[in-house]
Write a structure and sequence with these properties.
Layout (H helix, E strand, L loop, with lengths): L3 H8 L9 H4 L4 H9 L2 H4 L3 H17 L4 E6 L9 H16 L12 E9 H4 L5 H16 L9 E7 L7 H7 L1 H5 L4 E5 L5 H9 L5 E4 L7 H10 L2 E4 L1 H7 L9 H4 L7 H6 L4 E3 L4 H4 L3 H11 L6 H13 L5 H30 L1
Parallel strand pairs: 1-2, 2-3, 3-4, 4-5, 5-6, 6-7
Helix pairs in contact: 5-6
Length: about 350
């Protein structure tokens, strides 16, 4: 019930400028997370909040013309820790919204899936209550994948949180159940730490995808392994600028000239599978379209139309879906793009005549 200007101040303005927060703000990574810490778990702690959130996120997915979206969250931190009840309520709310009139706002009926987040900071708890959150989250994914209502909705496991947090051995131990069940896993690594963090994610935690992976350019052998094994990077330009800070375009070079260039272009030239994601659109106030514009802004010479399409296709190719379903989705997306290109060609040809 607070006025918008008060919400704006406490959610965002107190950490302005939201650029290179690890280096420019005394609270470091926590200053980036502040908007999320003040909203997510509290709002999703009550059933009515879940339904309202489902409505908002579904309509945002529609307005961005997304065919496929993997949402991420920490169900064991919602509804007083009843993760299964949260997933059931959230999934049911999305299905209900999809069947209502709001779908008229969708050019395409989106496929929505859910990835459960674990927080590496909880592993630094050395066996306390927070350690149980990781264990419960892994068990939740295993249980949900066996539930008739949820097995197609919950598609994988994510490890996020400040990379400076310790406890890799404890995380590996807690993830043993996920390894045994062959769960798809994505790991946030290499955003704020050297390539060793990415190596650990790939070789010790068996990551199928890597969130960020910016420092992969430091280890050419590991980069070649990722290229050859087709392990996809999930780059998030807006949050990368907020957390780490990179050199901006020419008009802002005076403010950012001492920072490294954004490594997307170098990673792309190495032939690495990569795509763009929003990380946390509520924290960074961005959209997927916004991420492609930001990526082009940060890349010398910009991104070409074909580069953008290829990166989008990488997202479909590495979706946490069964192979048959993923292949059908890619063909559907290809058909849409092909038709739009034919229509554009016809318009241009008619204009020339």
């Amino acid at each position: 019930h607070l006025p918008p200007e008060i919400l704006e101040k406490h959610l965002y303005e107190v950490t302005q400028p939201r650029f290179a927060l690890l280096k420019t703000n005394t609270h470091g990574f926590s200053s980036y997370e502040r908007p999320g810490e003040m909203t997510g778990s509290a709002i999703l702690g009550r059933p009515e909040g879940i339904k309202k959130y489902a409505e908002k996120v579904y309509l945002q997915i529609c307005r961005q013309n997304l065919l496929y979206c993997e949402l991420r969250g920490s169900p064991v931190k919602y509804l007083a820790g009843d993760g299964m009840e949260f997933l059931r309520l959230f999934h049911a709310a999305l299905k209900e919204i999809a069947g209502r009139e709001e779908k008229k706002d969708c050019n395409y009926q989106p496929i929505i899936r859910f990835v459960v987040i674990t927080d590496r900071r909880d592993a630094a708890d050395c066996g306390g209550e927070n350690m149980d959150l990781i264990r419960k989250s892994v068990d939740l994914v295993i249980e949900a994948r066996k539930d008739p209502q949820l097995r197609n909705f919950v598609v994988g496991l994510d490890l996020a949180g400040d990379e400076l947090s310790r406890g890799l051995d404890r995380i590996k131990q807690l993830y043993e159940g996920a390894f045994a069940e062959c769960l798809p896993i994505t790991i946030h690594a290499g955003e704020t730490q050297p390539a060793e963090s990415i190596w650990n994610a790939a070789y010790r935690l068996h990551a199928d995808r890597i969130g960020h992976g910016l420092s992969l350019v430091e280890n050419q052998a590991l980069a070649a392994h990722f290229r050859d094994r087709n392990i996809c990077l999930e780059l998030c330009p807006t949050s990368n600028m907020e957390v780490v800070g990179f050199r901006g375009p020419e008009e802002s070079i005076g403010k950012t000239g001492n920072y490294d260039p954004y490594p997307l272009g170098e990673l792309w030239e190495l032939g690495l599978p990569l795509t763009l994601c929003t990380d946390n659109p509520g924290i960074s106030r961005t959209t997927l379209t916004g991420e492609y514009l930001e990526a082009s802004r940060l890349t010398p010479g910009g991104l070409s139309f074909w580069d953008a399409l290829a990166m989008m296709k990488q997202a479909f190719s590495h979706a946490f879906l069964p192979a048959g379903e993923r292949e059908g989705l890619i063909k559907h997306a290809d058909a849409i793009i092909y038709q739009k290109m034919l229509d554009k060609f016809a318009e241009e040809s008619a204009g020339k005549v």
